[in-house]
């Protein structure tokens, strides 16, 4: 199995590197975009090109593999996770950043086998940050092994958090409440505008936790492998096992920290993927 996963990873990594050029070559200047679910959920021509290149290349190499891609799902493809090897792809995670030229966008590619995340690649080509992980083989930034921090207490945690890409009033209420809780109880809050890069920061030990309600499988599939392989935990924000299609995630450097954050935050339950 490891040999096969290594082979899947090698092909994906090479495609991700190639697609990175599409993002870095177009980062400067105004990008035209169209709206998806609402006025802050954007897609550009580059999102579509990257997804087409990744899906095209991976399906040519592995014809029996399945795909869950952000833009294909937006265009009506069913979001279905089976036991087959499934590539879960966000072609540009942080599309809003990309549109504005804020240099925190990434290609996020995860692979699940038997529904379990086993490969994670998160690439920010603008800053040259390639985060990679394979189950059981550690997590890396540009080939140097990375580890989560050892922070166990909310009071000393730097937490990454997002307002998200929907203006749903109920979710917004939870976001605002949680922002207040984070600011008043933790060390600080950071918002990178890319779920995948927030998780990469937890894996790197630069942030101690990240949670969000309303994300999709493609935002967090790769990050899940990365955080776990860096020694951290990924759970449901209310405690209990992480469910990749639940649109809820809490990742942290330690289980102690995850549990304390979980007890303190306001919960929100979006419709499943
Ligand atoms: C979004 C980003 C953002 C997060 C949203 C995601 P996209 O992904 O990861 O940080 O808050 O929930 O949808 O739309 O830029 O691919």
UniProtKB/TrEMBL annotation:
Binding-site list for Mg(2+) 2: 90, 93
Record InterPro entries: IMPase, Inositol_monoP_metal-BS, Inositol_monoPase_Li-sen, Inositol_monophosphatase-like, Inositol_monophosphatase_CS
UniProt keywords, alphabetically: Hydrolase, Magnesium, Metal-binding
TM segment ranges: none
UniProt EC number: 3.1.3.25
GO MF: inositol monophosphate 1-phosphatase activity; metal ion binding
GO annotation, biological process: inositol metabolic process; phosphatidylinositol phosphate biosynthetic process; signal transduction
First-tier enzyme category under EC: hydrolase
Cofactor dependency: Mg(2+)
Binding positions (Mg(2+) 1): 70, 219
Signal peptide segment: none
Pathway membership, UniProt: Polyol metabolism; myo-inositol biosynthesis; myo-inositol from D-glucose 6-phosphate: step 2/2
Pfam families per record: Inositol_P
Catalysed conversion reaction: a myo-inositol phosphate + H2O = myo-inositol + phosphate
Family assignment from sequence similarity: Belongs to the inositol monophosphatase superfamily.
Name of the molecule in the record: Inositol-1-monophosphatase
Organism of derivation: Bombyx mori (Silk moth)
Lineage summary: Eukaryota, Metazoa, Ecdysozoa, Arthropoda, Hexapoda
């Amino acid at each position: 199995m490891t040999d096969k996963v290594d082979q899947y990873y090698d092909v994906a990594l090479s495609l991700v590197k190639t697609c990175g050029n599409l993002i870095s070559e177009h980062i400067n200047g105004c990008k035209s975009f169209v709206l998806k679910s609402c006025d802050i959920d954007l897609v550009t021509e580059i999102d579509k090109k990257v997804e087409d290149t990744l899906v095209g290349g991976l399906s040519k190499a592995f014809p029996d593999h399945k795909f869950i891609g952000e833009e294909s799902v937006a265009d009506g493809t069913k979001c279905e996770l089976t036991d087959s090897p499934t590539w879960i792809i966000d072609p540009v995670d942080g599309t809003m950043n990309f549109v504005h030229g804020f240099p925190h966008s990434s290609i996020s590619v995860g692979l699940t086998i038997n529904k379990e995340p086993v490969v994670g690649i998160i690439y920010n080509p603008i800053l040259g940050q390639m985060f990679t992980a394979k189950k059981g083989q550690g997590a890396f930034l540009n080939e140097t092994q990375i580890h989560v921090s050892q922070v166990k207490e909310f009071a000393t945690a730097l937490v990454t958090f997002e307002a998200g890409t929907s203006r749903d009033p109920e979710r917004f209420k939870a976001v605002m409440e949680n922002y207040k809780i984070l600011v008043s109880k933790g060390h600080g809050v950071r918002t990178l505008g890319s779920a995948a890069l927030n998780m990469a920061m937890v894996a790197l030990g630069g942030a101690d936790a990240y949670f969000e309600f309303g994300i999709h499988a493609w935002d967090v599939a790769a990050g899940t492998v990365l955080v776990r392989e860096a020694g951290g935990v990924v759970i449901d924000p209310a405690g209990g096992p992480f469910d990749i299609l639940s649109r809820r995630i809490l990742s942290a450097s330690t289980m102690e920290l995850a549990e304390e954050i979980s007890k303190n935050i306001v919960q929100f339950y979006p419709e499943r993927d």
